[in-house]
Each structure stands twice: as C-alpha cells, then as structure tokens.
Amino acid sequence: MINRRRFSVATGVVAVSGFPSVHAQSGGKIVLGQSAALTGPASQLGIQFSQGARLYFDQVNAQGGVSGRQIELRTMDDGYEPDRCQENTRKLLSGDALALFGYVGTPTSAVALPLATQAKIPFVAPCTGAMVLREPFNKWAFHVRASYQDETALIVKQLTQLGLERIAVFYQNDGYGKAGLDGVNLALSKLGHKPVALATVERNSVDVAAAVQTLRAAQPQAIVQISAYKSCAAFIRAARKAGYGGQFFNVSFVGTQALADELGKDAAGIVVSQVMPSPYSMTTAISREFAAAVKTAGGESRANFSSIEGYLSAKVLVEGMKRAATKGLTPESLVTGLESIGTQSFGGFAVAFSGTDHVASSFVDLSMLTGDGRVRT
User: Fold this and answer.
1) What is the DSSP annotation of 345-356?
2) Are β-strands 271-274 and 365-369 bridged in parallel, bridged antiparallel, or unpaired?
3) Does the pLDDT of residue 365 top 80, yes or no?
4) pLDDT of residue 116
5) pLDDT band at residue 2 using 50, 70 and 90 as cut-offs
6) Do 108 and 180 fall within a single domain?
7) What is the pTM assigned to this prediction?
8) What residue numbers bound the domain in which 269 lies?
9) CA 180, CA 170: separation in Å to the nearest integer?
10) Same domain, 161 and 268
C-alpha cells in the first residue's frame, strides 16, 4: 500500500447540450453523466480528470465492456459555476444515466448531490474533499479521494514541524474555499494556534490585489492557498512581486500540473498536497498501469495528478459495476456493488467501502513544483 511520506523543505472532451428524457439504459450502453469545467479559468481541472477517466473506460470498452455493454461518459461543461452545473445535472438525470460520475468542484457538487439523491442515482467520485458532501452519510454518494481536512492536517503538520507557525490562508470565497479554511482552522486549533490573517478571491477571478496587500501586511511565514490554479498563480506572482518571500502550500484541487504550467519558472518551491498516487513515480502498480495506458493512447493523453484521479476513479466505479452486473445493473445494485468492494488494493492504492462508510481513502502526500514544469514527489 502507499504510505504517507514526510516532505521537508498535463483526449479531447465532448460537451453535450442535453439528452432525451428516457429512463432505461439505452442501446445496451451504460451511460454515465458528468458535469465539469471544460472552459474558463478552472477548465484544466475538468479536462484532465475527464481525460483520465475516458482512458480507463476506453480500455474496458475495448475488452468488451461490462457484461458486454459499452460504457458511455456524457460530459457537459459547467464552467465551474453552480447554476450551470445544476441545469446540466437536471438534464443528465432526465436522461438515462446509471450514475453521475466525476463532478469537479465543491460548489458544483453541492448543488448536484441533492438532485442525485432525490432521483436515487449514485453520485460517484466527485473531485472535491469538502466535508459537507461526506457528512451526514448519504447512501448515494461515494468518495474516492481523501478530504480537505486530511490534506490541510498534513500541510499544517508539515509547516509546524518546520517551525513555521505564522500561517495565513488565501481562499476562494465559496464552499470549496471555506471547506479548506475549516480544515486549516481545525488543524491549527489542535495546536493552540489560528491563522495570522485571511484573504479571499472570488471563484473564476484573478483579482488578488487586495488579498496580497492583506496577507503581506500580516507577515506570515507561510500561506496556505485554497483556490484553483489561475487565482493561486496570480496570487503567488503578485505576492512575490510585492516582496513576500515565504512558503506557499496548496491543496490538491488547485490542479498541480495546471498550476505548474501557469507559473512556469515561478513554480519553483511551491508545495501541493496530493490525494492520489504519483503519476510520475513507477513505485506502485497503479502508476505503472496508468503510465502504460497514457503511452498506448498517445494523442492528447497526459500523465498528471488530475488525470490519474480520473483513471483510478473510473477503475473503482467499473469494479462496482462488474459486481452489480451479476444481479442486473441498476442504480440500486450499483450502490450494493460499490459497497461490496470492501477493503481492496487498486494497484497499491487502498480503497475501503462498506454499507456505512462511502469514503474510500484518507491517503495524503506532499509534492513540490520545480521551475522547469516538473512535480517532485
């Protein structure tokens, strides 16, 4: 299994406008619905996740599908905006989707999950670590990644072990940012500390001037960032230009490769927590499998943390579908199939589901960006 380590110191996606109002699985296909950002400042998060998922689904389809049925992932663009996501989700649920899969983001998932629950459709592997989507327990929701509380706990532990206790938080002013902030506050409170300063940025915005001024004035030794790659990159550049010389730590949802690409040589030394095995290290079977799949697929396929999350999440979902298919594949049987996975290693990545626990993993690790676009793990 992958162990937590102490760290010292990038296929096209098709957007679909709507689906017919039928409720049976059509044409022998297994239809999955996804709403994610494919355009806008957070687009790489949705594109990369979806690429990884499609990579695995294509492999399964090439081998005959699940019980002879092909998997079809229908992806709609929400631009990382809740209103658009809600509209997309209603369209997907009015069609023939067996499950909703791979939604990207907290504010978007937060409006989609109640709709999926009402429709009694599984909501599987959202790319978010917000506790509001995990508690209270929801029969229809399944999470593959660790929580933001898990990520921020490791970040705070790392910073304090390095003697960096003056910690500020730059966060997105929505459910995602507040979930990350809650995690930092919780971790710091256990040590008798609190953030020395807070500053926000609006979702899908790079207006960070006021935030830089606020946080720099507090003279933090480190800044934890809870936002997407465009705004975090803008903040890092502006803060450094203003003379800030401290450390920057980010949670996984920032989009590691997207952040590295956005910053270029300015990425050197930026730390990002990770909830997936490294796509760059061949120390685990799942990483080797993923690397081989990317190489075989060619084209626009890229190995990065977002795409391996899509790949591994698709792998877990397919395992649940295969188990459910023995009794007839329905939304209800898929829930049972996923729960029956129990505790299992997916190429070295430990997954644990049960009838009372739908959070598969608490694995978190740390990575560091270099100035030449690489990610050290």
Assistant:
1) EETTEEEE--SS
2) antiparallel
3) yes
4) 98
5) very low
6) no
7) 0.92
8) 148-274
9) 10
10) yes
